[in-house]
Amino acid sequence: MEHLVLVPATQEVFAGEPLSVPVTRLDGTVAPQIKDLCIEAVAGRPLILGIDLSRVEFMDSGGLGALLACRKHVTALGGSLGLIAPRPLILRVIEATGFDKVMPIYASRADFEASLT
Hints:
The model has no long low-confidence stretch (mean pLDDT 94). The chain is of the alpha/beta class. The protein has helices at 31-42, 61-76, 88-96, 109-115; strands at 3-6, 9-14, 17-22, 25-26, 48-52, 58-59, 80-84, 105-106.
């Protein structure tokens, strides 16, 4: 099955040019954009999707909801979703909410890639 690593980012305009800005706060303000980014990346096909959380410094219930919505979308298409390289604080949030029971957590992108073989 095809795989893809998604780095959460927002699209901004700087000096009239589009710019992709990595997300450091995964909260309710960016959750709709992250859900749309996931749907666009999956493009209606089953795949193994890894979401790289290495730059995320803060996550609240809105961010957790976005990840859950993305997982639901991916699994409905026959794919799977894993979380890559969450920082310690983000990992504690994931574990405290039980998300680690429904989505595999990978310490690094290399670990995610290794799991595919």
